[in-house]
Hints:
Largest sheet: 6 strands, parallel
Structural class: alpha/beta
Oligomer: single chain
Shape: globular
Radius of gyration: 19 Å
Helix content: 25-40%
Number of helices: 11
Strand content: 15-25%
Distance between the termini: 38 Å
Amino acid sequence: MARLFTFGLGYTARSIAQNMGMLGWKTSGTGSNGDVAFTNRDNVLRAIDTASHILSSVPPDRASGGDPVLEAYADALAGKPLFYLSSTGVYGDRQGAWVDEATPTIAQSGEGRRNARAEADLAWLNMGARVFRLPGIYGPGRSALDRVRAGQARRIDLPDQVFSRVHVDDIASGVVAALVQDAPPGAYNLGDDWPCSGNEVTEHACRLLGVEPPPLESLEDANLSAMARGFYMENRRVANGKAKRVLGWQPRYPTYVEGLAALL
């Protein structure tokens, strides 16, 4: 019987596991929504041994920069079909240019600031994993609609800034396709078809809710956290053609318009 063991059953990985469960797979995992404690080595090793497939959504450790899963369990994972949720942040700033899976990451090119996620991405690729590079994730409870309703929406005055995004359901369908097909190892970008500014999405959410958009702010006046400011310092468009060709994947929500309409 096919069994999926997941390191880190968070927002996105839980959706993937639920979809695999509906297909008849047995699922288990670590994290607040899981049934196995990450630090219980005996139980984790037993779960790895009985699993047919392994998925990790655990990010690098903020303090050390290392990948907790690989540091603790890399030997046990060798030879297993591996799947890893990464980030399109591994491409760094491309000044609005398109990137695809052939674009060197920061870790591969040695350019740009040290990026723990890029190094983890490369480490999983070297383990023979299917690595899913994800842009901004939105979905139920985590969208521009929720930020507008909560009075937390921002509009930053960066006219040329472009982001890619993806609905959590589309991530799940892409990873499920890879799991079911036992897709070839390598990187896969899972993003929608319409990279655009964050302001465009916020303004559309405001129109749907019938409220005025928040005022434009300069990056300097916005008083953003270091993480959020770093997000705005990067500018790229993420191509998704490989996932469509190799996995037969098509996003249910090809743009934020369809995605926000469904959430509304």
